[in-house]
Amino acid sequence: MENFFNWISKPVPSDEVTIWFNVHNMIYERIELYGDIFKSLDYIIRDTYMGDNIDDVKETKIIISQEDNKKHFKWCWDKTISDFEKENIFVSEVGEHKDYVESFYFDTFYSQPDQMVKNSIPKFLNQIFDMTQQFTKSDLDMLTEFYKMMEKNVK
Asked: Can you give the pTM of this predicted structure?
């Protein structure tokens, strides 16, 4: 139990983080780019999502279906990819990176009844991609997994 607690909460010294990034061939500028892609997608999802207004559901009896949520995510994903293409950054439309991000948003946003969890996503993204913060091993594992997926799918 102590090992798990350390993995999830104990900060890793900055020199060990640098070694971690070197061992995994992680480049700071690409971490920042992948963070920008993820944060841009998050902004578009939040800015264009028309669900979650409880008063409107009671008033109009309109409920957004899972199919509507899937269409919304696809539109947001495609818009994010298109926006980055304008900057000559090409993200594959399909692949494990899309599946990962889609699963993340369906778990933490679209299907999440707790508004506090939904509202914590931007803070989480800012923290996980912030190169000035202290990382835990859990953070590094998550960041490395996402980085490696994006490496295969961004040109």
From this structure: 0.85
